[in-house]
Amino acid sequence: MGVELGWIHGVYVLFVLGIIATMILRRDTSLLCMIGIGVLGWTATSSMASAVGGLFGSFIFAITELLPTILVISIIVAMSQVLSETGINETMIKPVSSLIQTPALAFWGIGVVMMMISWFFWPSPAVALIGAVLLPAAIRVGLPAIGVAVAMNLFGHGIALSGDFIIQGAPTLTAKAAGLPVSDVISASVPLVIVMGLVTTLTAFWYLKKDMKSGLISAKGDLSDIFHSASSDSADKLLQAGMRKWLAAAVILLFLLDVCAMFFLDLKGGDATALIGGTALLILVGITLLAHKDAGLEKVTSHLVEGFQFGFKVFGPVIPIAAFFYMGDSGFVQVYGEMLPAGSHGIVNDLGVALAHAIPLSKEIAALALTSIGVITGLDGSGFSGITLVGSLAKLFATALGTGADTLTALGQIAAIWVGGGTIIPWALIPAAAICRVDPFELARRNLYPVVIGLLVTTIVAMFLI
């Protein structure tokens, strides 16, 4: 029998519902999360001073938990900037552009390349990394710019980001919120990511071919706007073409060696992230010093600062939200001490046990609930802002069911990131739309049906896996 629920549990549930409602209204939830942390602290301690101090303490706890993820993403973004300004990114991708001969090859080729690069560099840097070279190549063979944007969105911000198998930023956040090892969430997400990816991309390609055949969209109008984007004059001043080829090969080889090391040395979670981050840092330093010579020392610092600015800009809205949802688990004791009712195993755990005794929660209802909550949390246009919520709720539902924590966590993560990470929220997919020079609202509209169909099929598959 679980611990008897008290005011602290009611306050937590009330604020969770309020946060979900705020997300539905497309409003920012940071302030509500901060108020929730303070009210939780005041309810538990009856001390305003402790509640206010706990608010700051919760941020420290959240940042401590998130810092490895923020750090590795910042370093990778900084590295991608160096690769871009030196032209190494163009050299890395140019062999693939010669293989693009038809619109179908362009769509699937750009998609696969985007996915692979996004696994290592994340989608936002990858959009710029491949856009300048592969976009003109696709236009030349008849794939409209909107088709290129769809491919980059679905394969990068959809498949690669929702799984995040290499950098492991997303599964780290959801796993911590759900109280699971990162490897469990990644393993559970593999079949769901495959199903979601196949259904969504195949559906999107079918719609694209249908509209191209009917003449609704065409690549002809895209020609004059696109072809001027692939100049490398500034890159030639930094590195000679021969040196760029050697360095491009070295970058690819280093990351391939990282992947091999992960498999053979069984590196997972933080160890795998540290390896990728360390490699990216070495690449950043080495290429910057080679390219800028005497100014290399200052340029290394400059690129790092730009990377950190990007990292904290992306995760700034996540920290207050994560801080609140960590209060549902180990974060509360870390911040406020042993102030929960006797026998409590954490607010979320207590609620899960109570839910198990109160209603017959089926795995079908749990799967539908996690997908719906993931979609709702993604409506703010940030795929990461709500994944700590779905992790916490997945733990709650799994406790009630007695099984399926990893699958439910992975399902919620996929739903949240596919919706909010940059596929159907117009303000979230502006980078891809800008690179391809298409209307972000048109891109969101074209992605809508494939993503919705994919989520429905993936949710049904998850019901059988729980």
UniProtKB/TrEMBL annotation:
Name by which UniProt lists this protein: Transporter
Transmembrane regions listed in the UniProt entry: 6-25, 32-53, 59-83, 104-122, 128-152, 185-208, 246-265, 271-290, 310-327, 366-394, 414-436, 448-465
Keywords assigned: Membrane, Transmembrane, Transmembrane helix
Superkingdom of the source species: Bacteria
